[in-house]
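Quick bug: T9SS type A sorting domain-containing protein output formatted oddly.
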Amino acid sequence: MRFRALVCFALLLFAALPGFGQITPVTQPKGRTCATDAYQETLEQLRPGIKQLQQQAREVAQHYISKQKKGQEMRRAGSITIPVVFHVVYNAASQNISDEQIYSQLAVLNADFRRTNADKVNTPSHFASLAGDAGIEFCLASTDPNGELTNGITRTKTTASSFSVANNNIKRQDRGGAAAWDRDQYLNIWVGNISDDVLGWATFPGALSSSQYDGVVLHYQTVGAAPYNPFNWEYNKGRTATHEIGHWLGLQHIWGTGNASCSDSDGIDDTPNQYEPNYGCPTGTIVSCQNGPYGDMWQNYMDYSNDACMNMFTNDQIAYMQAVLNSSRSKLLISVACNGGLRADFEAATEALIQAGEAMNFQDKSVGVKPTTWLWEFEGGTPATSTDRNPTVTYKKPGKYKVTLTISNTQMSSTETKSQFIEVTPTEVTVYPVPAKDHVIIEQPAHVELRHVELIDRVGKVMLSQDVTTRTAELSTANLPSGVYFMRITSSAGTETKKVTIVR
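Here's what came back:
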């Protein structure tokens, strides 16, 4: 809270200063150039399957919206605050933008996403009823991934003269860029000198296997608003970041997924279908794709209009962004990176399924201000407690056990308990219940998979036969007479036979 107050004071202080001198930008594109769609192709080439994951994320978001409409879930009350880290990657001094320019960008984002932007009065009356407050705010992170205090800005001097959408160099420390912070705790925004007249790009939700690349990239000349952004051009009001974060929250370009077509869509009901992007600062009504009488919504942040002519998200766009934040990006909702808090969390070093007598390594994954003490409690484990940060525990008996971690420092503490977190199996194949009646269950030890099971009567006749590809299986024995049978079990560990008794 102290850091946020200082940021607000700094913004008020600089607002009282005379305007800075304006600089002609190095790049002068003919119109807004967002490379988000092109970047998805780059990701797909590097990590095949990304597009499928993004489609799955869209389906989950749409399912969330459907449940909202049916009243099955309540929308989160109040606003959502997303912690942001700006990675400034610079070659020349002019690219190493000031803290004040970044503070200005944060102010633009908060105004645009809460619809407190002064230019909302420019929204035409016929679209104003569709515009809304997204209920999304942004703060500079106050703690880094190591739990150290930060101002939410990193600065990296690079030998690279520029960065391209065709690769991830700006996001790679080994290629002159800066590494991402945990995308489940932060929105990563990289700022640098972008080549090919590109203003920025973003990752869509769902790119789970490329978490180190998740976030937004901005040309350094687009960050913040004048006078803190000193570049005298059409993109000095901070709306490139608003546009790209819209993509990061799942929104497509308002004209759809292609160019110059009425047959595609952005998937949002209350944005008019339009033929192609609008550039510059249009005036009046532009009718395309039979969207009269009001025409294209060129005031929308997801069009290609100049910064000065963008001023709105629609209510359905807002519903979609909220759905993304409650599905594929939901971990950000419990981030403590804004408020300097502390949140305990942990995971097993390997799959939380072991055989009796095996050891399990635990890893502290807590976030927030760095803890100084750790207290673990292991139900059924040896030792039963530990003060190590990443302890090793042995489980001697089969069962499902809870694990509790309490972390603390001189100012605060946090506790996380995960019930039935560890499952311990027998060390050999088990068939139960004994005796069986209507069904029989076959369970292999951890790390062993079944292949095939057969139930054979006392004269060698196969009564049941089933292929299995899991560790456990259940066979129905409801139609078999009472008696003694033999279960032949083939698994990844070989073949063995168990006696089974069925009673009626």
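Actually, after a second look the formatting is fine. Confidence is low (pLDDT under 50) at residues 1-20. Closing.
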